[in-house]
Amino acid sequence: MKTMVQAAFVVSFSILAAGPLPAQEATPVAPAAAEEATTSVDTGGSKDVGAPTAAAAANTAVAPTQPPKSSILKNIILGYKSYNDSGRFGFQNNSESKADADQGRNYKGKHEVKLGAKTDSGWGLYGQITQYRYEYDNAEFTRWSASDPSVTLLHPAFMEESNFRMTGSLRYYVPFTDRTKNKGVKQVAYYLDSNFKFSGDRGDEIFNSFNPRLFGADKYAPSDSRAKIEDITSYTRKINSWSRWGLGQWTQFEQHSETKDGLTVDAFVQYDVMYNSKTFFGPRIFAPVFVNNTVYDAPRAATWDNAYFEIYVQANL
After folding, report:
1. Is residue 93 over pLDDT 80?
2. Can you give the pLDDT at residue 39?
3. What pLDDT is attached to residue 141?
4. Residue 14 has pLDDT above 50, yes or no
5. pTM of this prediction?
6. CB of 174 within 8 A of CB of 150?
C-alpha cells in the first residue's frame, strides 16, 4: 500500500514531463471505465468511465456549489484523471514471472489529460492523452507504457430535466503505439451516460454508463478483442457538503477473435472528498463477484485474491 500511495503522488506530478514512451504490450482494449460523470457536462469515468480501473462513472454526486465561470472558461474543456491501483491482493510481491500481468504487480497507474472546447448548445470536441505506469516486485518489469491518444466528439444531451440527464459522446482512438500500428488496429467507442438525482436534501444519486466499443484490425491474435461492452452503475449519497460514499457494479463483456468470449462483474465501494462536482479524490475497493472466461486485465476468478484497492483523483475545469 505504501508503494502505491507514493507512486500515486509521484506519477500525478511527473506525467506531463514524461518523454516518448514504449508501446503498451496489452490487448488493444481501451480504458475500463466510463469517461465522464453526467454532472460533469464536458463528456464518463471510465471511467476513464471511465471507468473503472476504476470507474470514473462511479464518480458522480451533488457537491458544493461552483462559482460562475467567465464566458471564455465555460467553453473550455480541460481535465486530469489519475487511477492508482494496488496489485490484486493475492498476486502482489511475486517476482517469479511477468507472463501473467497480475503476478508480482504492486501498482498500476492510468493518467489522462484532456483539452478541448464546447459550445453553449452542447457540441464539443477534445483530445486526450493517456499514459500507464506499472510497478512490479521484480523491478526489471517496471515501466511506463503509452496508450493511443483519442479524439472525442460531444453532442447535446438526449434528455435534460431538473433531476435527470442523459448524454452521449463518440470517441476515436488515433493509432500511435507500435503494436497498434503494426496490427492496423482501429478503435471507436461510444459513451451513453445517465444521471438521476433523488428528491430531498440527502444528495442521493444513481449513475449509469453504457459503453460499447469496436476494434478493427488487419490481423488478430486468437485472444484479441473484436468488441467490448462495459456497463457501470453506481449509487452515491452525500455525507456532508464536501464528502460522499457510494457503491456500485462494473460489468465487462469482451468478444475475442477466436477464444471464448469473457464476462466479468465487479462490485465496488467508494468514498470521496470533494472540492466541487468536478474536482475530488478518494479510495475505492473493487471485488469480483462473477467471472466467466477472460477479459483483458480483469479478474481471473471471483475471489478476494482478485480484489484491489484504488485511489482516484479528478480535476476538471
Report:
1. no
2. 33
3. 86
4. no
5. 0.77
6. yes
Q: Could you tell me the three cell numbers for 40?
A: 460533469
Residue 64: partners with Cβ closer than 8 Å, 6 or more residues away: 241, 242, 274, 275, 276
Q: Alpha-carbon distance 232 to 189, whole Å?
A: 15
pLDDT exceeds cutoff 60 at 296: yes
Alpha carbon distance 163, 95 (integer Å): 50
| Mean pLDDT within 15-21 | 35
Q: How many CB atoms lie within 10 A of CB 295?
A: 24
pLDDT value for 161:
93
The single residue listed with the C-alpha cell 480483469 is: 298
- For the chain, list the domains and their CATH numbers: 2-316 (2.40.160.40)
Burial status of residue 73 (CB atoms within 10 A of its CB: 0-12, 13-18, 19 or more): exposed
